[in-house]
Specification:
By secondary structure, the chain is an alpha+beta fold. The chain has helices at residues 7-29, 37-46, 51-61, 68-92, 197-206, 217-225, and strands at residues 105-109, 122-125, 131-132, 174-175, 178-183, 186-195, 210-211, 233-240, 249-251, 281-285, 296-299, 305-311. Helix content is 28%, strand content 18%. The structure holds calcium ion (CA) (4 copies).
Length: 315
């Protein structure tokens, strides 16, 4: 009998609960900042959320009629809603700007400030220095390297197109041992270095090209016209099978190399190379070299020669 609260004591408790509820509701719903606010709101204020955000969720939730149950929901809803909003915003502009913004965007880190971001570093952040909506910077530590930058002869892919020192009519018409020529709707590079066939091909590929395919007599004569007299053999993009299959000559695109239309020099191909057991790579001979001049010969693939690259012209 003594332990159980009397009816009067129960009433007092209920009244006290109702009063405290009313205070919570009024304080947040009206935006007033009396003594109640610091308790509930102080947490959200510290997180940097503007007052407007705090008001919105409270007003929505208090639409219901009931008191006691509703009150529990209200305070729960408030507490839950705040951190969620705050977390999203904070994640948006992490450690870089520190400034909150209304709408973080999908951007890329642009460390060198050249206007192009690093593909490998997408972020949700506020627009501003250090970020760019455009990806594509292949060197985000070099502000002179970005898409659209004129290509120059510097062993660097200046314009991020994955070709190094390729032809650029603005800034790169000759580079190293190679001179670029636009002719008959194709782009060629005539290279006067000394490479074996594989290295010659790799050099072309680095420039966004490949060893030239001498399709017909028209192209053949065009190529020959660019070779200096007595400049020797120039590798083309054709091989004879894989080592010992003499006779299966193919261009790099898989098409057959004709042995019947006179572009091979007399008695060629003869599979006679310089000591490595065959001659399985095709070369074009310049003017001035006996009966092989201006014709094809088969060469040992390890022999060092000049080379001709070919590819589509730049867009
Ligand atoms: Ca950049
Ligand atoms: Ca860059
Ligand atoms: Ca390039
Ligand atoms: Ca370059």
């Amino acid at each position: 009998m003594n332990g159980a609260p009397g009816p009067r004591r129960t009433q007092v408790l209920a009244l006290a609960a109702a009063l405290s509820l009313a205070c919570t509701y009024d304080g947040s719903g009206l935006g007033a900042q009396p003594d109640d606010l610091p308790q509930e709101t102080s947490t959200s204020t510290t997180t940097g959320e503007p007052p407007a955000t705090t008001i919105a969720p409270t007003t929505t939730t208090t639409g219901g009629p009931a008191e006691t149950t509703e009150a529990a929901v209200t305070s729960t809803g408030l507490t839950t809603a705040e951190p969620t909003t705050t977390t999203t915003t904070t994640a948006g502009e992490p450690d870089t700007t520190g400034e909150p913004c209304a709408t973080p965007e999908a951007l890329y880190v642009d460390d060198d400030g050249d206007g192009f971001g690093d593909d490998g570093q997408p972020v949700t952040a506020c627009a501003g220095p250090g970020f760019s909506p455009q990806a594509g910077d292949c060197d985000d530590a070099d502000a002179a390297v970005f898409p659209g930058q004129p290509e120059t002869c510097n062993v660097v892919d200046d314009d991020c197109d994955q070709s190094v020192d390729e032809f650029d009519p603005r800034s790169n018409i000759a580079c190293g041992v190679c001179t670029y020529i636009l002719a008959a709707g194709r782009l060629y590079a005539f290279c006067t270095g000394a490479h074996n066939w594989a290295d010659a091909r790799a050099d072309c590929q680095l420039r966004g090209l490949d060893l030239a395919i001498d399709d017909d007599w028209l192209e053949h004569n065009l190529l020959v016209s660019y070779l200096a007299e007595n400049s020797g053999q120039w590798y083309l993009g054709a091989q004879d099978g894989d080592g010992n299959q003499e006779g299966s000559w193919r261009w790099l695109d898989g098409s057959e190399v004709p042995k019947w239309d006179g572009r091979f020099a007399p008695n060629q191909p003869d599979d006679k190379g310089s000591g490595d057991g065959g001659a399985d790579c095709l070369a074009l001979v310049s003017k001035g070299k006996g009966n092989t001049q201006e014709r094809w010969v088969d060469e040992s693939c390890g022999a060092l020669h000049k080379w001709i690259c070919e590819g589509p012209p730049p867009p």
